Amino acid sequence: MPTKSSLKNRKRHIAYHSLLKMNWLMHIIILQVLLGQVLSNLLCVSNDKCSCKHDLFNKENIQVECGLSTLESNLVESIIKIECNSDQIQWEQHFGQIDIKKFHYAKCLLSDTGIHQTISTLGIKKVQSLKLVAMRLNGSLENTYLSNLESVETLDITLTKLILTNESFEGTPRLTKLYLRQNYIEDIPTGVFKLLTHLEILDLGDNKITQINSDLFYGIPLKGLNLDTNYLTSLDLNSQSLEHLDVANNRITSLTVGHLNQLLDISLNKNILVTMPDQTFKNTSLESIRFSYGNFTTIPRGFLTNLDRLRFAYLRSLNIEKVPENMIWNSPNIEELSLASNCLNELPMMFFRDAGKIKILDLSKNQIKNINHELLRPLKNLENLDLSNNLIIQINNYGLRYLRNLKYLNLERNKITNIEREALNVPKLKTLKLAYNKISNLISNHSFSLHYLDQLETIDLSNNFINCIDPSWVNLIKLININLSSNNFTVLRIQDIQYINEIVKTNLNNNPLEVIDLSNLEIFARAQSPPYNFWNNRQINLSSDKFICDCRNYEFARFLHNQMPKIVYKYLQIEQKLICNDGLRTEFSNVNIESLTCDWNVFEDEDKTNCLECECTYRPRDKSALMDCSNRNLILAPEVIISSRNINYTELNLRNNSITKLPNYEYLNIKKLNIGYNNLNTINITQLPKNLIELHLEHNNLTMISETNLNNTLSNINILTMNSNSWICDCNAKNTINFIHKYSSKISDLANITCHQSSTPLYTLTEGEVCQEGLNTATIITVSMFLAVLSSAFSIGLLWMLYSNNKTKIKIWLYSHNITWPISEESLDQEKKYDAFISFSHRDIEVVENNLVPGLEGGSSPFKLCLHYRDWVVGDWIPAQIARSVDESRRTIIVLSQNYLQSVWGRTEFRTAYSSALNERRSRIIVILYGDISTKDLDSELKAYLSMNTYIKWGDSWFWEKLRYALPHRPVTKNKTRAKIIVPDKLNSIRLA
User: Fold this and answer.
1) Given the DSSP bridges, would you call strands 889-896 and 925-929 parallel, antiparallel or unpaired?
2) What are all long-range contacts of 342-345, with beta carbons under 8 Å and residues at least 24 apart?
3) What is the pLDDT of residue 700?
4) What is the pTM of this model?
């Protein structure tokens, strides 16, 4: 551990030298920091010149940066890395004689004093592995550069321009591994490696060497030699210990390895060898040969014979057209043989005579047309056979009969159209690849069978012409992966895929699938033996852009929309991307299941009636028949309607024609009838189908409903439309009004059904309102007397005018001060139940309930009010209750607000009160303006009324006086407390305490 005084002296020393040599100081600081970490575990320090930091992810890593130079250390791996980036470097000792296993030195200038001087100056005692990257030398690699490096066992020099001499490695006598890749070496001196008596691995690859002296490695215990990627044209080596030789990517035309008795492995890839001597490797111990990418068209006889240690032979992409029959004779231990990517048409019949131990045979990418079982007969231990990318048309019976241990067979990209029945009698086969052939049929017959493949796990039949599946696949009980993509499947039934077991994945993507029939899926799912597999992996992948999106795929749509029993989804999973053949590229999964119909002719039923003049379809969703006769310029409606015992009902669409009358459909099984946009002028309700649930009558010329007895008519109707007809509103409309009142909850366009010559909605009318008697005698006499009085009083009227301009204010003032005014109620009002019916929006109930009602029902002269939330009978028809409330009240008070204008029922109440006032020729309506009202929001009737009548504004200083005066004048009565029934905007009654 350094003392405080020593640290002070060191700082003074650094300060002194900083004035002389800044570069030297920078590297001294780097090494000081490293020294502190290695020897004393001091904290990583920084100063003005250098920064020091720990690796965030590995605290053992330290990096010091001084300008462009860096030093990295890893104490765990015992490695120091220095990147100089400067030529002016001087070192002094800063390590306490430590051992470093690996020393990396990059981008530095090697001085004449050698690397050893630098290492010892730093205080490093022993280095086992030295790596020099992108170094700079002055001239050739003299012995001084690598002198005194006796401890170095591995030397790696790369990216450095080297000129070797016989003395280059005198200072590294204990080298066992020497890597000299990418150093632009051109010549190898004869004695350069003589002193390396321990050298076992030498890598001279990726240089510019043109020749090697045959005795260059004589006497050296070299085991591995790498000479790849040079410019060698010939090679003749004399090395009794060499085991691994790589001369790939050279220009070798001749090769002699007779003196390489211990040679086990050789790589000759990418050379221009045309031929070799017979039995080139006879004196070697060869175990593996790799020779690919050349033009070795003529293989010498006995090329690989008598090599009893040979296990791996790869002769690929050499343009070989023929092989000698005895090429591998007497080499009985070959395990892997590849002759792929050549030009072979066939192999000699006795080629595999002594190759009984071959496990992997690759003959892919040749021009082989036939598989001869006698050729393959010796290969009893063969497990992997690759015959892909050949010209095989047929696999004959027993072609593979002797391959009893075959597990993998690749026959992809051939021209196979037929596989004979016994051809695949390979009991241990697990993977079979037949993709990219011309197979069109998988049906087991006398010429084909998969029966024997009971151990098969994976089969690839993609990119063929198959359109159906062999039922015998049910015997393939170990299948887990099936590829049938890119074939010709147009129809897929659950029966076709019954072979799939619990973990099978079947790929049917990219087929022209049109129909997927899952009608029996539930039966198959329930037929599984319990207990059912709740962790099912059975899966099918489907894709097609030819899919028919009609009822033929209804069951499949049910499956996609989770409308089948849960057990079905435990049995099968389907991933799909099916595009409808509708030209719009609609995905089938997005199609509404209700829209899946089929032409009536596709519907199979012997009992069905024919469709003659319309477009008829069948919808399986509800087993209904759809008869579409719309837009056909029909004058007469069809009398014969399609039907069948196997359908639930018929929908008849007669929309947009010129039909004037309907035939008698009373006893037909029609549930939905659309006769909208025609010329109907009469409609006989009793002749409509008894089970009708939906009826459309809009946009015709109908004037009235003539039937008087509606008790048993349209008892099942749910939807009814009647707008845009010529409905009359006189005495002949009684049945029409009753009809509308009876079915008002079913009529979707109720508010739009209006009288022909006005905009009055029919549902607001009552039978009495549409059938009033003519003016009676009393009315005539009254009118006559009125005219007489008017004539005689004309002169008096002039005088009265002055009074009348202020009489209302006078009367209101007198009435508010209890001064009696001669007012009498009309005999018409004597039997009325209420003084006033208050019409308001439920949104304004607070002001009505808290202010208006207490103000009128209280005081010395209370009024009897009709309020819908307490006086209406729950469940009664709303229009009838409105009419009754108006009729039973002497006045109708309208709380006219913005909310009221938005209320359909509020407007109905106004029209009812207004109609009553007009009929009685008396002022019945009191309008209270509440809030800001825009005249543009008023309908024509309300706007006209306000323009001709006075009204009261909420908040007026005389509001209560004016309101009480406008109401009937009644004596004092006692208030009664009622239970409240709130009907918000006349809908959905809610009873409150």
Assistant:
1) parallel
2) 342/315, 342/316, 342/317, 342/318, 342/366, 343/319, 343/367, 344/320, 344/368, 345/321, 345/369
3) 95
4) 0.67
